[in-house]
Amino acid sequence: MRLTVGWQGQKKGVFAVEGARARDLTAAHPEVGSDLMALIRAPELLARIGQEGMAGATVALSDIRPDLPVERPGKIICLGLNYVDHVKEGGYDIPTYPALFLRTLTSMLPAGAPMLLPACSERLDYEAELMVIIGRGGKHIAEAAALDHVFGYTVFNDGSVRDYQRKTHQWTPGKNFDRTGAVGPVVVTPEDLPAGAHGLRITTRVGDEVLQDATTADMMWTVARTIATLSEFTTLEPGDMIAMGTPPGVGHARTPPRWLRAGEVVKVEIEGIGICANPVEAEAAAGGGR
């Protein structure tokens, strides 16, 4: 199933995407709520909706203003250095354990909303990534069973402020500027994609300029292996989000570097899932953060 969360006028809800239209699941089933958490916590509800047949009015997908798929995820865990060619272009050694960092909620924004070019830096970079939304939680999850813990997959643009990322060995500052991590708008449940979202084309474009073009088959840590690895040290919970790292082609590795500029629209696309498109806006013009 293809799902999106967003606003139609003054009402926020969950919609089932059907081509260029979307069916209002929240209006037809109030227990669905206004983000994906009710469906994540009660998979039987989603199964029942699918079995009974879709009810509710449809609207044009273009009339829905996207919001975050999960309003308040407990954890947003991100992998760095998960594609060999990206590791090489960054000048790192091939890792034997994934580079990990956390994102804060204030660093996130939905598809369609402006990404902020911060006032203190011009080095805002793009990173196309597959994002996993956890359904069933757990600790010490076996790799062989890990995909059973996935609720769905979506698109992520891990906007990174490179000079701040490089100020320290810890990447936290450069990965957590307000409104730099764009996610959505469509979440696809696992039965509609290859297992582990393996082998999907992943690209970044600005206008006609193709900046990244790879496949999720190139990830060193697969979705299953990543879930198993993370659950060794933390209890994964329903609604947690995991970003799977970016392929080569990022702006800081280019000669000259290719930073995002105010007025551009950056589009990250993953085959079978969709496009996360966001305009870039200068922080001063936006009046600060959220």
Describe it for me?
This protein is α+β, with helices and mostly antiparallel strands. The protein has two domains: 2-66, no CATH class; 76-286, Alpha-Beta Complex (Fumarylacetoacetate hydrolase, domain 2). Helix content is 14%, strand content 33%. It has helices at 25-28, 37-41, 43-52, 84-89, 162-165, 223-230, 283-286, and strands at residues 2-8, 11-18, 21-24, 58-60, 65-66, 76-80, 99-102, 108-110, 115-117, 124-125, 128-134, 150-158, 160-161, 181-183, 186-188, 201-206, 209-215, 241-243, 265-270, 274-282. A seven-stranded mixed sheet has the order 7-6-18-11-12-14-8, with no helix packed on it. Strands 1, 2, 3, 4, 5 and 15 form a six-stranded antiparallel sheet that branches. The protein has a five-stranded mixed sheet with strand order 9-20-19-16-17. A hairpin with a 2-residue loop joins strand 1 (2-8) and strand 2 (11-18). The model has no long low-confidence stretch (mean pLDDT 95). It holds the Pfam family FAA_hydrolase.
